[in-house]
Amino acid sequence: MPGHLRVRRPSPTTVSFTVSNASPRSNSPAKILFGIQILLRALLFCCVITALSARMRNLFLLQSDNMIQWQAIWSSPVGAHVCHLVDKYNPWVITVVSVLVIYGVFKRGYTEESLFVIRGFGIQTSTSSSTYLSSAATRFIPTTQIQDIVIHEAFKGFEVRFYLAVIVEGEPDVLVVFPQLLPKREILEEVWRGSRRCLYDAKS
Amino acid sequence: MPYNIAMVSDFFFPQSGGIESHIYQLSSKLIDRGHKVIIITHAYKGRTGVRYLTNGLKIYHVPFFVIYRETTFPTVFSFFPIFRNIVIREQIDIVHGHASLSSFCGEAILHARTMGLRTVFTDHSLFGFADAASILTNKLLKFTLSDVDHAICVSHTCKENTVLRASLDPLMVSVIPNAVVAENFCPLSYTPRTHDQIPISPADPRPSPTPIGPDDTITIVVISRLFYNKGTDLLIAAIPRILASNPNTRFIIAGSGPKAIDLEQMLERNVLQDKVEMLGSVRHEEVRDVMVRGHIYLHPSLTEAFGTVIVEAASCGLYVVCTRVGGIPEVLPQHMTTFAKPEEDDLVVATSKAITALRSNKVRTDRFHDQVKMMYSWRDVAERTERVYQGIIGDISPSEFYGHYPEQGWDLSGDRVRSFALIDRLKRYYGCGVWAGKLFCLCVVIDFLIFVFLEMWFPRANIDIARSWPKKQPMDKPRTHTIRNNRT
């Protein structure tokens, strides 16, 4: 899925460019699909938690405290079935499988990278993390340190790709904007024009 | 019609040399003529990625493994994915490879033919036929040239050599010599002429600026890399004898290489340090400053396809003494040079003859610069190369391009317009030799399969098209127009 661009201008002196390779959720089937996906993830998460607690019930989940009747749960038909199922497998297998499922549940299915420009203040780049658990990696560069914003080409793997880069004063390497998605040239040119207009053009 | 041309070679700046400056000058003149030119070479130390030179000349320094004297490791196929990407994003029509020892060039020509592009190859050097290394190189050259659309050589000797080595049809090989930027090689006391006619008549009003007296010191300049093939051994043997038989003679030797140590030993053995100055290696832009310090340029090379340096020397107003090898006799007119056989005795005799001629003020070295300027220009080289491009693309008809001689009893036979069909290409490769032919066919088939695979794996639609450098208006439009008229 190639990345697509979303531009927002909350005020005349700010502009935010977001490139994302998520499929756009504009029509109702896509929205329903997204809802089902979230439900499925929640369900999977619950299943894993149940299986894990059933496995470890002998350690600390036997005494019935005043909140949950653990004994009753494990002896109910469903509980007994789960316990039976879980006890059949090696604890290592269960650990590995549940770690994988939890990773899958929290894995973000798309990458979103953005460039946020504020006139007279600076720019902030951000790259979404690979899971829902950690927050996006951001970097802020004040206007005084920005030497230029350029589009250039570089070798990446077996390809030559365009990239948008910010030349930061006093740093040996440039800062690449949208480093993971590396969107197409048309998108980069639009972002380049928009961000330069916002940063340097006094009239707009 | 403007073309998009990719020059491919292992040799390009920052390394300096004849091939490198040839590619650069030719490319910039082609850009002046309205074409788009990019250069693909391997990464040099501290120089990787995409760069632009003056004029909007774009250079791809592809990261690659270098084995020997800045030549990359020949892997046949590994260059293909990135080459295909570059060719598609730059919308290349013609791939022009340089130098037969460059494995980049050979691979690029193979892949370009697989992709259905026209290819040109320029050979810059001469090779032998006898020893094992030459046989191997010649097989590789044959592999490269079996399917090339046209080849260009820098001299007629070089053409003969290439045609024999790669068993080519001579009509598919053009001769386009190198050139020099005459403005960069002016003599010390040079005044530009007001009228651009060369006065060939002896009644030139200008007197010889500084007549050389019988006791004045004559300086002989040698600028060459000190390798065996550049004739350094000959030079080592000849210097003491030249200095002994001609008093008031000095040598300036610039350049470095494995033979430098032998040269220094000779100087110490004969105690000639006060008569021979060794400068070490000089940069290309300093060559002129070294040349103008001398009167004679001595070029003892054992093999040379063209010898740009002797044109540069003549342009600086030096009288040239050189060996009669390779393409050298084609380069300069008789009155600028004294030729010697590539042996010690004859070199000494020829140098002494040149010194005598200079002392008697018979040679008008002050006119050399204007004459060289009229003979060699890169614009002319670019025009002739452009005609080759037109010929292979099909903008001029094959009979006009290859010549049409029905009255001489033979005519265009065989198909010189190389078709891209795989079976035709395989036929051409199969004729390369008993075993080599089969091996080459195997390579071509694998290359084709890789191409099909790449088309599926990295579809063309996903490759960004690069923007071209904004073109400036061609400055010499009326001039090219008149040339076209003269030709028709």
UniProtKB/TrEMBL annotation, chain A:
GO annotation terms (biological process): GPI anchor biosynthetic process
Pfam families: PIG-H
Residues that span the membrane, as ranges: 32-54, 89-106
GO cellular component: glycosylphosphatidylinositol-N-acetylglucosaminyltransferase (GPI-GnT) complex
Keyword Nucleotide-binding: no
Domain Phosphatidylinositol N-acetylglucosaminyltransferase subunit H conserved per the UniProt entry, residue ranges: 114-179
Family: Belongs to the PIGH family.
Protein name (record): Phosphatidylinositol N-acetylglucosaminyltransferase subunit H conserved domain-containing protein
From TrEMBL, chain B:
InterPro entries: Glyco_trans_1, PIG-A/GPI3, PIGA_GPI_anchor_biosynthesis
Alphabetized GO MF terms: phosphatidylinositol N-acetylglucosaminyltransferase activity
Residue span(s) of domain PIGA GPI anchor biosynthesis: 42-131
GO terms for cellular component: glycosylphosphatidylinositol-N-acetylglucosaminyltransferase (GPI-GnT) complex
SUPFAM superfamilies: UDP-Glycosyltransferase/glycogen phosphorylase (SSF53756)
Keywords, in A-Z order: Glycosyltransferase, GPI-anchor biosynthesis, Membrane, Transferase, Transmembrane, Transmembrane helix
E.C. no: 2.4.1.198
GO terms under biological process: GPI anchor biosynthetic process
Top-level division of the source organism's lineage: Eukaryota
Pfam families xrefs: Glycos_transf_1, PIGA
Protein's job: Catalytic subunit in the complex catalyzing the transfer of N-acetylglucosamine from UDP-N-acetylglucosamine to phosphatidylinositol, the first step of GPI biosynthesis.
PANTHER family: N-ACETYLGLUCOSAMINYL-PHOSPHATIDYLINOSITOL BIOSYNTHETIC PROTEIN, PHOSPHATIDYLINOSITOL N-ACETYLGLUCOSAMINYLTRANSFERASE SUBUNIT A
Name the UniProt record assigns to this protein: Phosphatidylinositol N-acetylglucosaminyltransferase GPI3 subunit
